[in-house]
Design a protein that fits this description.
Layout: H1 10-32, H2 37-51, H3 60-69, E1 73-75, E2 82-84, H4 86-103, E3 117-129, H5 141-154, E4 173-178, E5 183-190, H6 203-220, E6 225-231, E7 235-238, H7 255-267, E8 273-280, E9 286-288, E10 294-296, H8 303-318, E11 323-327, H9 332-345, E12 348-351, H10 357-368
Parallel strand pairs: 5-6, 5-8, 8-11, 11-12
Antiparallel strand pairs: 1-2, 3-4, 6-7, 9-10
Helix pairs in contact: 1-2, 1-4, 4-6, 6-10, 7-8, 8-9
Length: 374
C-alpha cells in the first residue's frame, strides 16, 4: 500500500467539511421537498444566507458542481432542471440512517441476534453434550477425547467393553452455535392529509424513518426483507428507489387496506419473524367496500370503519403477525381506539414525538428480531 503525504491546506480541507455539512442539510431538505432538487436548493440558499453558512470564495454554485461531480444530481436534458439520481437517493438513505443512529442512546440497541442457541449460525466457545441430529462438523474433538479418557480411567472392571481409545456417543460434545433469525417487515406509512396539517410536518420525520430503515436492512441485514406500503384512501406498495419522492395528499386514512396488504405480503414470506410497523397520526376514516368503492367518514370514530379495522388487526394476530403502532399525534380521543387496536392484535403502541420517532422504530426493530413471533 502506498501513502501520499502533502502539506495541510486549511482552505481545501476545510471545504471538504463544509461540503459534508451542506450535503446533510441538502439531503434533509430533499426529504421535505419530496425529492425536488431545485426547491431544495432554493431553501438551502435561504438557510445559507440566514445562518452565514458559506465562507468567502465559496458559493452554492460550487456546491451544485460538487453534487454533479459526484453524480448525486444531474441536469435533465429536456427541461434543464436538476433531478436526483439513484446515487443521490442512496446518499439520502445513508444520511437518514446516520441521523437516527445519532439519536440512539449509546449501548441502547445492538446487533439483533436471538439469545437462543441453535443449529445454524456462528460457532460459540461453549459446548454441550451431543444430541441426536446434531451436525458432526460441530463436534468439539478436544472435549470429546478428554471425556473418553476420563470415562476409561473411571472404569474399574478389567476388560471393559470397547477397544482402547474408542469413543462412545456419551463422550461426544458439540459447540453451541449462535442462531440468527431472518425478519420480514412491512412498514405502513400514513399519507393522509393530516400528516402535514395545521402547519406541523409529520410526513418528513416519518419518511426519514422509512428511508433509514430501508438502508439499515439493506446494508446490515441482507437476509431480512422490508416492504413499504403507503395508505391514504387506498393502499399501495412503493419501491425503495421512489421513497425520497413520496408525499402525502388530500387523502383519508384507510388503515384496514394497509393492514390487509401488509398481511398478504408477509404471508408470502418464509422468514422466522414477520411484523408490521404502523406509523400514523390519526384514526381510520376510510374503508374499501366489496365492490371496490371507498366509504369515507372523517367525523369522529365511525364504528363501521373501526370494527373492520379491528377485525383486520385480529386476523393479523391469528396469522402470527404482530403490529407495532407508532402514533405521532397526542390527541386524547385517539387513545381509546389505539389501546383497543393493540389489545386485539396483542401488539405494542408508542405515542411517539416526531423527534424520537426514529429511535422508537429502530430499537423495536432490533429487539423484535431477537425472538420468534410465530
Amino acid at each position: 500500500m502506498r501513502w501520499l503525504y502533502e502539506r495541510f491546506d486549511p482552505a481545501r480541507h476545510g471545504r471538504a467539511e463544509l461540503e459534508k455539512l451542506l450535503r446533510r442539510i441538502f439531503h434533509a431538505l430533499l426529504v421535505r421537498t419530496d425529492g425536488d432538487v431545485d426547491e431544495a436548493m432554493r431553501w438551502l440558499e435561504v438557510l445559507a444566507e440566514r445562518h452565514q453558512l458559506l465562507p468567502k470564495g465559496y458559493s452554492l454554485e460550487d456546491f451544485r458542481k460538487a453534487l454533479e461531480r459526484d453524480r448525486e444530481v444531474r441536469t435533465d436534458p429536456l427541461t434543464g432542471e436538476f433531478t436526483l439520481t439513484g446515487r443521490g437517493a442512496r446518499e439520502i438513505r445513508r444520511d437518514s440512517l446516520e441521523l437516527i443512529f445519532q439519536g440512539l442512546r449509546k449501548g441502547g440497541a445492538g446487533e439483533h441476534r436471538t439469545p437462543h442457541a441453535g443449529a445454524q449460525g456462528e460457532r460459540l466457545p461453549e459446548t454441550r453434550p451431543y444430541e441426536f441430529g446434531d451436525d458432526v462438523a460441530a463436534v468439539d474433538w478436544a472435549s470429546t477425547y478428554r471425556n473418553a479418557a476420563m470415562r476409561r480411567g473411571s472404569e474399574s472392571a478389567p476388560g471393559a467393553a470397547g477397544a482402547p481409545g474408542a469413543i462412545e456417543e456419551q463422550d461426544l460434545e458439540v459447540y453451541e452455535t449462535e442462531h440468527r433469525t431472518s425478519c420480514a417487515t412491512v412498514l405502513l406509512l400514513d399519507i393522509s392529509h393530516s400528516m402535514t396539517l395545521y402547519g406541523e410536518d409529520r410526513m418528513s420525520p416519518a419518511k426519514t424513518v422509512a428511508l433509514a430503515l430501508d438502508e439499515l436492512v439493506t446494508s446490515q441485514f441482507p437476509k431480512d426483507t422490508l416492504e413499504v406500503v403507503l395508505f391514504g384512501d387506498e393502499a399501495k406498495r412503493v419501491r425503495r428507489e421512489d421513497l425520497p419522492f413520496v408525499s402525502n395528499g388530500p387523502f383519508h386514512t384507510n388503515t384496514r387496506a394497509g393492514l390487509r396488504m401488509a398481511r398478504e405480503l408477509l404471508l408470502r414470506s418464509r422468514a422466522a419473524n414477520r411484523q408490521i410497523f404502523l406509523i400514523t397520526d390519526g384514526k381510520p376514516s376510510a374503508l374499501t367496500e366489496p365492490d371496490g368503492s371507498i366509504y369515507k367518514n372523517p367525523m369522529g370514530l365511525d364504528r363501521r370503519i373501526v370494527n373492520k379495522t379491528l377485525e383486520e388487526a385480529a386476523e393479523c394476530h391469528r396469522k402470527g403477525i404482530p403490529i407495532t403502532t407508532f402514533m405521532v399525534a397526542q390527541d386524547a380521543y385517539l387513545q381509546s381506539f389505539v389501546e383497543e387496536f393493540a389489545k386485539v392484535n396483542q401488539g405494542r403502541v408508542y405515542f411517539s414525538g416526531l423527534d424520537n420517532l426514529g429511535s422508537y422504530v429502530f430499537v423495536d426493530y432490533l429487539r423484535n428480531r431477537r425472538r420468534r413471533v410465530r
